Amino acid sequence: MNGNSTSSDWDGRYFHVDQILDKPGPRTDPSFLAGDGVKDFLRNQCKILVIGAGGLGCEILANLALSGFKDIHVIDMDTIDISNLNRQFLFRQKDVGKPKATVAAEFIMNRVPGVQVTPYYGKIQDKDEDYYMQFNLVVCGLDSVEARRWINATLVNMVDPENPESLKPLIDGGTEGFKGQARVILPTVSSCYECSLDMLNKPTAFPICTIANTPRLPEHCIEWASVLEWPRVFGDKKLDTDDPEHIGWLFNHALKRAKEFKIEGVTWSLTQGVVKNIIPAIASTNAIIAASCCNEAFKIATSSAAYLNNYFMLIGTDGVYSYTFEHEQRKDCPVCGGESLDISIKKDWTVERLIEMLVEKQDIQIKKPSLSTPTKQIYLQAPPQLEQATRPNLEKKVSELVEDGGDITVTAASLPFNLSLRIKYI
Amino acid sequence: MLKIWSMKKNEDAAAKKKPKTSAAQIRVQKDLTELDLPSTMQTTFADPADLLNFELKITPDEGMYKGGAFSFSFNIGPNYPHEPPKVKCIPKIYHPNVDLEGNVCLNILREDWKPVLNLNSVMVGLQYLFLEPNADDPLNKEAAEELRRNRDQFLYNVKNSMRGGNIKNEHYDRVTNQ
To answer: Which domains does chain A have, with CATH numbers?
Structure first.
């Protein structure tokens, strides 16, 4: 079977896309298999995962389905809110309250014949490496730093030197009002999400003394209500930004304070916007960024053209400005940087013996290492209380604390970031 | 599909699998084990296995707050160091930059936090508040006003509050260092 003939593919369906896939161009990768080979891969073999079915996700799903991807999976943990309908065009009024992933998948399958979209309504953290291993590519349209850090670290950790299939390109899109970015992350090969964490804008925070004493903006009053007044009145009770009663309480208190200081502009929606840190989403920014992400997904899946290396940013706030550059991998990145060593030790080695060995090792120059596993501390050099608490472990056998093939994270002042050890027993 | 693997061959150092320790966790381990604290600061962990929640005790050896012991709670979230640690002053103290609920006005805890800063910078910043209380960024307005207007009266109030006294009908916790 070649890429042209499944039951739902009518004559000429892919006429335009095939202009690109049927013959190589001057800049196509030498590995490009023009013709049936690449079409078969794209349409019958390639499995792609879309994370997020919101503003970017809807656009991404539509673009992928229309450019010929046929086995698409989508994860989203949210349900549809009425405020989504202006830009998340796979959803209708009747869908409000239903899971985004499910509704989006059904819509695409109805609209684009022959595409299989498999939804998962839940968190990305529910899925394990075996799940992510089944995909060729991952495209993210997320709004949270935390989720991006998680999927990035998971894909980097999955890379197994023995298995080329374990390297999954990650295409990450993000928008904030008129600004956006699209990037291609080849885990362990190019700069990862964590490498560029310090480039992120931090959420707007106002000095706490301004909030407490000299409010001038409606936002100051709202922050006063959420940061100072809420904990003062309710103690440890957690503020739930999705609970209308909680937002209502903040709104009323912020409004009262605003009146007191003669400040105008405290509204319900601004209150919600400030506490949830909402930046108004612009449908067309999402369209541009999603299109860029899907172009990259198409080029990487088919090798038909050079792909983005590796960071595209769009700034639409002052006219139109865009810039593409290569973000460099950070040597001291806690996710993809640092050194990694396979170490074989005897089963009866104590932790102390292992530390001595690390200190003596000429090639890594490590002084005063602190050791931990993903779930517990083994030995920490400081502060004094933790050193004391972990000191009894020095006499224990490493094999009591770490299983065969297990990992130890080593940090030390002399290391730029960290070193990971994979322990094998002999 | 693009042959990424061929790009990988020459980069064997980075090719090794890495453990599933979260970036935040590694960063906290690094921050804590490399703390360089003077004898006036001490950390206490209620649960030594939990590095994300602990207390810091500051016992200034100079300045107006000399003789006191001030404990702060630290809570580090999963998004550290993208987000700063949450820090609160545990006892109720008389200080221009600390309010009666324990909120602290320190720029690097909010508007000026950056991921390149670490726990050591926060702790040093906290200690500095006791050496140089700052009347320009008040959280306790009465205290700030007093510091600006009458330094001697402010100093007297500080000493009185540290012994567990009342100032302007407000009771403060006893924080003298035993």
So the answer is: 7-200+281-325 (3.40.50.720), 208-276 (1.10.10.520), 341-425 (3.10.290.20)
